Amino acid sequence: xxxxxLLVRYGELTLKTGNRNTFVNQLKSNxxxxxxxxxxxxxxxxxxxxxxELEPHADVEEIIKRASKVFGVHSVSPVIKVDKDIEAIKxxxxxxxxxxxxxxxxxxxxxxxxxxGFPYETFDLQQILGKEILMxxxxxxxxxxxxxxxxMVEIRRDAAYLYSRVIEGAGGLPVGTxxxxxxxxxxxxxxxVAGIEVMKRGVTIEAIHFHSPPFTSxxxxxxxxxxxxxxxxxxGEIKLHLVPFTEIQKTIHKVVPENLTMxxxxxxxxxxxxRFAHQIEAKAIVNGxxxxxxxxxxxxxxxxxxxxxxxxxxxxxxxxxxxxxVIKAKAIGTFETSIQPFEDCCTIFxxxxxxxxxxxxxxxxxEEKFDFDTLINEAIExxxxxxxxxxxxxxxxxxxxxx
Length: 403
Ligand code: ATP
Ligand code: MG
Fold this sequence. Notes:
Layout: E1 5-9, H1 20-35, E2 41-45, E3 49-54, H2 60-67, E4 75-82, H3 86-98, E5 106-113, H4 122-136, E6 141-142, E7 149-155, E8 160-163, E9 167-168, E10 180-184, H5 190-199, E11 204-211, H6 218-231, E12 238-244, H7 246-255, H8 261-279, E13 285-286, H9 299-306, E14 313-314, H10 322-332, H11 335-338, H12 345-348, H13 360-367, H14 372-381, E15 384-388
Parallel strand pairs: 5-6, 5-7, 10-11, 10-13, 11-12, 13-14
Antiparallel strand pairs: 1-3, 1-4, 2-3, 4-8, 4-9, 7-8, 12-15
Helix pairs in contact: 3-4, 5-10, 7-8, 8-9, 8-14
The chain binds adenosine-5'-triphosphate and magnesium ion.
């Protein structure tokens, strides 16, 4: 195999100098998790960059694919690492150039030297390596401005690194460095995307899902579990809390006029999420709300629903168009699962004409007629918590000693 290392660049992460070690360690453990169950590599990190050492049998392309999806990874490059010996460097450069040996292709050598003790100046090194490539590889010509390919050479303190590919990473910050949030996860298209969006900024999520058996099916529950598995693929295990919501929904329909049941249902969900978020020490609630999408997501509705909590609510999809959300859902792989047609607790109880501009005092007035607090406490006590890891984990993989 040509490449012996994968170079992983941190990007934005390097800006956070104060917490650098925490960030690097978190990224390292996230990368290890993302690479399970692949074999033949070792993740090595220092303050500036990370390398994944590759054994000859490693599946480089699969490792690149998975590593580049991890938040906090800016870009990755498969590299050849050699001693800082000019003959070894020449050989590696030719080796790389052979990959692009097609008639008409142009290239240039781009050298960087952070080890100033290295006996060749950058410009000289570029000349020497360019010549060597031209002599040994048949179809290539040099082009300094906008070549088809660049052969990059970095002379660092420990060794020389050569590469020609730079694969863009997911960007963002490593999950686990930004505190905890509680994601309200339905079985729909939006909320899993909302979860991934906040994870991109480094926060961890626990997910809360409201279900109303027997009105909602076992399949609907499995669907939410599957969505959580997909979200956990590159971000680490996720706790999923399932709230029994049947009694509350039935009661709402008894005491609240039909056109306000949607508002009241959302308020009860949010009340539970709020209390539970405090219990698990989450600092914000995340949902998939999108301004104007449906009756419960007008400004008026949000105002009446939001009134039950003082916890920050993050709505990363607030201003997106639906087709933008769909593109994202397809990219993260949740779309196909989300569109499975199992009834959600809200769809089943949907009123015919929900108020798009509900009056807060009216909703409060009807809710006060019943002791919802007791039902809310019962629902919280009845929460079933599952710890979800990515799919491979079901073959009894134990992550704990790897992280
Ligand atoms: P989604 O596709 O995420 O279901 P949606 O466009 O269908 O969103 P709604 O059903 O109005 O919108 O829900 C708005 C938000 O409320 C959801 O994105 C989700 O965060 C939360 N939510 C809705 N239903 C549930 C549920 N059963 N359990 C947990 N959260 C829910
Ligand atoms: Mg929904």
